[in-house]
From TrEMBL:
Residue stretches making up the 4Fe-4S ferredoxin-type domain: 194-222, 229-249
Origin: domain of life: Bacteria
Keyword NAD: no
GO molecular function: FMN binding; iron-sulfur cluster binding; metal ion binding; oxidoreductase activity, acting on NAD(P)H
The protein, known as: Ferredoxin
Keyword terms: Iron, Iron-sulfur, Metal-binding
Every Flavodoxin-like domain range: 5-155
Organism: Crassaminicella thermophila
Coiled coil: none
Organism phylogeny: Bacteria, Bacillati, Bacillota, Clostridia, Eubacteriales
Length: 272
């Protein structure tokens, strides 16, 4: 079969990458044990400067994390510029055990508007970007077993000789407004301006400079912040000496509230 598997993802703390890679690897293996997967990791800003396009021979597994119940708005420009030209697509969203709300339907709609045929979709759970305990260590073995099974079903759909049907996924239209955290009195709070701080543990290794998806950390002085912060968790979770932290009280309150309110384990939802 003349199908090329592509794995595309934005993944600041690596959970979306795990799901998309495992899915792409199993589909690819089913098609041809030796096939080479084309990986496009668009987490870093440099990569998002190049637009990509596909053909009818491509199958594109594309994943983004859920931010505020939606596709991260900082990715919209890049995502809207990908051209499908009839390629098959599998939209995947990964969320931190609260809810994926309208992110999956939004991603599917973007892909279809770009000329892809969405044949399956899934919402998976990953450790929450804000927390080390909410959905801790997910995706775990149980999640990956579900990914593998889903990959087999997608493969069977791809090799069908008949016209491949497009998929319907869960979500509302119009899409929900971006989810807003609340303060102790229930008033919405805007945490967009909140930026990470740097403590004395910092060894100036520059890792944070190189992994910030917004390219916002100053290369000369890593405690300086030059652009926007999307609270993706990369600099906090990947720092080898725990030098980055948030001290904003609304952010910390929101994080704690999520950890309390959403402990109940959610399971992946698949659409095919
Ligand atoms: C700004 C922001 C908003 C988020 N909003 C949600 C949300 O609405 N629902 C949810 O369950 N998780 C939410 N999360 C958590 C991420 O979707 C989740 O941790 C995901 O696994 C992160 O993916 P990554 O490891 O690929 O970066 C949010 C994370 C960030 C940074």
């Amino acid at each position: 079969m003349n199908k090329k598997i592509n794995a595309m993802y934005f993944s600041a703390t690596g959970t979306t990458k795990k799901i998309v890679s495992a899915l792409a690897e199993k589909i690819s293996k089913n098609i041809d044990d030796e096939a080479i997967i084309n990986y496009i990791d668009f987490t870093l800003p440099e990569v998002r400067k190049k637009s990509v396009s596909f053909t009818e021979e491509d199958v594109v597994i594309i994943g983004v994390p859920v931010y505020a119940g939606r596709v991260p708005n900082v990715l919209l420009k890049y995502l809207n510029a990908i051209t499908g030209n009839g390629a098959l697509a599998v939209p995947i969203v990964v969320y931190g055990n609260r809810n994926y709300d309208d992110a999956l339907i939004e991603l599917k709609d973007i892909l279809e508007l770009n000329g892809f045929k969405a044949i399956a979709g899934g919402a998976f759970i990953g450790e929450h970007s804000f927390s080390k305990i909410l959905a801790k260590d997910r995706p775990d073995e149980k999640d990956i077993a579900i990914v593998i099974d889903f990959a087999d079903k997608i493969y069977k759909k791809i090799i069908l000789k008949d016209e491949i049907q497009t998929v319907e996924v869960k979500g509302n239209k119009p899409y929900r407004k971006y989810y807003m955290p609340k303060d102790e009195k229930g008033r919405p709070v805007d945490i967009r301006k909140v930026k990470p701080k740097t403590n004395n543990n910092c060894i100036d290794c520059k890792l944070c400079v190189n992994i910030c998806p917004m390219g916002s950390i100053d290369a000369e002085d890593v405690s300086k912040f030059n652009g926007i912060c999307i609270k993706c968790g990369a600099c906090i979770k990947k720092c080898p000496v725990q030098a980055k932290y948030y001290d904003d009280k609304d952010y910390l309150r929101h994080k704690q509230e999520l950890e309390i309110d959403f402990v109940h384990r959610r399971e992946p939802e698949l659409f095919i």
